[in-house]
Amino acid sequence: MSDIEALEYNTARPKMLIPEYGRNVQKMVDHAVSLSDRDERNKVAQAIIKVMGELKPELRDAEEYKPKLWTHLFIMSNFELDVDSPYPLPIKEVLDEKPQRVAYPQSPIKIGHYGKNVEKLIEKACEMEDKDERDALIKTIATIMKQFYIVFNSNSIEDEMIGDHLRKLSNDRIILEDLTFLPSTSSIIKLYGLKSNTNNNNVSKKHKSKKRKNNNNNNNRKRH
Q1: How confident is the model at residue 204 (pLDDT cuts 50, 70, 90)?
Q2: Is 203 domain-assigned?
Q3: Handedness of CA 37, 43, 47, 53 (dihedral sign)
Q4: pTM for this one?
Q5: What is the rounded CA–CA span in Å between residue 14 and residue 2?
């Protein structure tokens, strides 16, 4: 048989139920399933769990790290591996169940770049009875709104517009007369590492002015 004929393509190999662990681990699991001696199967299963833990060190920070590995082991064996697990065996029917559909929020977002959470915060502030706590929360919300606006629009915004948006989102229940507490646009741009559009606008204006001047010169030459 030639080397080309001996090649084994993935499309011709059995499907891996959890491909993240790789083909070799899947072969180890298949070997464990084929063993007739239970003690030997238990030893091999423990060895496979150790290898799986080495291949997926990020799982060690997850809750119930070891039970997850054993669950993955049984899934990879298509629940055919008969060993003494230190944890309750997973139920195939439960794992096969489709997750319940998460209800999509039906209420529209009034101003998109602020999001639903900002609207919830505004509603919370409107319901607060303690004036000091309410005022502190409103200032925090207004600051977040300005940050969100600049981050999503990469452009400057007048503080008065933030006050107007806050009044609109609160249905006229929150009206800010003093907006001097809001951070400057430049400080927000610096904080989030954004690029200011001010220079870009200036460059664009200069470019348009230069282009207009060149067009005028060309027209004058044509006349002469």
Answers
A1: very low
A2: no
A3: positive
A4: 0.46
A5: 23
Same domain, 90 and 8: yes
Residue 123 sits in the same domain as residue 186: yes
Integer Rg of the chain from CA: 32
Domain count, the chain: 2
Residue after which a domain boundary falls, among 96, 122, 142? 96
- The residue range of the domain holding 149 is 112-196
Task: Pick the range with the lowest mean pLDDT from 60-69, 70-79, 81-90, 169-178.
Answer: 60-69
pLDDT digits (tens, 9 = 90+) for 182-202: 999 888 888 888 776 544 444
Q: Give the pair of three-digit tokens for residue 144.
A: 């977040």
Give the per-residue pLDDT at 201: 45
Contacts of 17 (CB under 8 A, 6+ apart): 26, 75, 76, 78
pLDDT exceeds 50 at position 113? yes
75: its two tokens: 């899934």
Q: Are 76 and 132 members of one domain?
A: no
